[in-house]
Write a structure and sequence with these properties.
Blueprint (H helix, E strand, L loop, with lengths): L1 E3 L6 E6 L9 E7 L1 H12 L5 E2 L1 H8 L12 H21 L1
Length: 95
């Protein structure tokens, strides 16, 4: 999940990456204002990490729903997922 926060324009884009079903992450939700707020609420409810990156959100927001992310941002998204996996692993080790 990525988000861009500006006073007048909050945007959120949610990604799904299920390695058993797909080779590349997909955009599964995106929106501005109230829709973005709801996306972020759902992420919080399910413990889904949120990464703030305005440039990444701008690119991902241009991707159609249920489409794979563009090759140009794959490296950046992979770095975000790697960070999330490390944090999840650390969190599990702390319990």
């Amino acid at each position: 999940m990525a988000e861009k926060t500006e006073k007048s324009n909050r945007t959120a884009v949610a990604l799904r990456y299920d390695t058993s079903r797909e080779a590349v992450p997909r955009v599964v939700a995106k929106g501005q204002q109230q829709v973005a707020e709801r996306i972020l609420e759902v992420a919080a409810e399910y413990g889904i990490p949120v990464h703030q990156d305005a440039d990444l959100v701008e690119v991902l927001n241009a991707v159609e729903l249920d489409q794979e992310i563009p090759l140009e941002v794959y490296t950046v998204v992979a770095e975000v997922f790697a960070y999330i996996y490390r944090m999840n692993k650390k969190k599990k080790a702390d319990f």
